[in-house]
From TrEMBL:
InterPro entries tied to this protein: TatA/B/E (IPR003369), TatB (IPR018448)
Localization annotation: Cell membrane; Membrane
Membrane topology annotation: Single-pass membrane protein
Assembly behavior: The Tat system comprises two distinct complexes: a TatABC complex, containing multiple copies of TatA, TatB and TatC subunits, and a separate TatA complex, containing only TatA subunits. Substrates initially bind to the TatABC complex, which probably triggers association of the separate TatA complex to form the active translocon.
Annotated Gene Ontology cellular component terms: TAT protein transport complex
Alphabetical UniProt keywords: Cell inner membrane, Cell membrane, Membrane, Protein transport, Translocation, Transmembrane, Transmembrane helix, Transport
PANTHER family: SEC-INDEPENDENT PROTEIN TRANSLOCASE PROTEIN TATA, CHLOROPLASTIC
Protein name per the record: Sec-independent protein translocase protein TatB
Residues covered by region (Disordered): 132-156
Main location: membrane
């Protein structure tokens, strides 16, 4: 930036006092100071934006490096799992006398996943409590409800 010493500033002030005049000099000085402040803030904003973009690029590079490392670790783990699975299948086949195809068919044919009635809402309130409080647990039509609570017929 331009280097202004005290002597240069005094010379500029004296010339401004002569050219502008003593009445308008304070207002002009305020305006110049205001414009210089705006310029400094603008320069600071530009510097901050440049620094943010540089940091963003660095973060993108680090993200790429981490993703590559994670993919490599995932490949290594997957290969180790596959090799252990193959060794297990081979050992299991030797022990049972079945090939891996027969082994996978036998294991899949006999296995059934547990049945879950996903339509039934499983609440945390115990059934005995609901019965004691008279909470309805089953959906019931209006006619069925009327028939349930209808007083018994009297014999004529």
């Amino acid at each position: 930036m331009i280097d202004f010493g005290f002597d240069k500033l005094a010379l500029i002030g004296a010339v401004a006092l002569i050219v502008i005049g003593p009445e308008r000099l304070p207002r002009v000085a305020r305006t110049v100071g205001h414009l210089l402040g705006k310029a400094q803030r603008y320069v600071a904003d530009v510097k901050a934006e440049v620094n943010r973009s540089i940091e963003l690029e660095e973060l993108k590079k680090m993200k790429g490096q981490f993703e590559d490392a994670a993919r490599e670790v995932e490949k290594n783990v997957q290969s180790e799992i596959n090799s252990a699975n193959q060794a297990f299948e081979q050992t299991w086949g030797e022990v049972t006398g079945q090939t891996s195809i027969e082994n996978s068919y036998a294991s899949s044919a006999g296995y059934k996943p547990p049945k879950k009635n996903w339509r039934v809402k499983r609440g945390a309130t115990p059934i005995w409590y609901k019965q004691r409080q008279g909470v309805r647990r089953h959906a019931q039509s209006g006619a069925a409800r009327v028939a349930r609570f209808r007083p018994p017929r009297r014999a004529a």
